[in-house]
């Protein structure tokens, strides 16, 4: 029985629900229908595109899956620098914004489940080159240490976490791209990374990666302020 597919869907729903609830708490409750419509579209648009098989053509020029990456980057930046992102920056403490990143234990668990089912190459897991679990552990540690501290999270800790977290996120995204069956492939062990172009695994980049990146950008906005 496959566990990775339902886990991909449930964990993505958890992250989307977490984000939408945070928007409401930060001042979006008066626009609740818009907030939850945003969450529904976040889930259904990439799911529908992947379910239609549009992303599985790795021989296209450019490979269609690679078009997802700039879309994720753009969407995360757009959200982080939107009014909702500003509200989150102002409403939540630095400890809470960093603590949010502890959700990254979910995609790490998903990748290990998919690896056990023969869907994911080892370099994309904890047993290979994926060290993103460190981001989740650091986020939880910083939150627990400074959530009640009078001065909040020290600037050095927040900045250091952002550098490490963004670096580890870029690392796994790069490994995932270099494991796809495209002209850019650098990891030739099997299986190639094609599962991510299908439903529900498309939610790994479009929900988990997007949420991690958007969260980091909001932390940087707070640091800049």
Molecular structure report:
By secondary structure, the chain is mainly alpha-helical. The protein has one domain. The chain has helices at residues 4-28, 32-51, 68-80, 83-91, 94-99, 105-116, 133-146, 155-178, 203-224. Helix 4 (83-91) crosses helix 9. The model has no long low-confidence stretch (mean pLDDT 95).
**Main sheet characteristics:** none
Alpha-beta classification: mainly alpha
**Whole-angstrom Rg:** 17 Å
Number of individual domains: 1
In DSSP terms (H or I, runs of 4 or more residues), the helix count works out at 9
Q: Please state the overall shape, judged from the principal axes of the Cα atoms.
A: globular
- Helix-strand topology string: HHHHHHHHH
Percent in strands: under 5%
Segments where pLDDT lies below 50 for 5+ residues?
Answer: none
Helix content: 55-70%
What is the number of strand segments? 0
Mean pLDDT: 95
User: Whole-Å distance between the termini?
Assistant: 49 Å
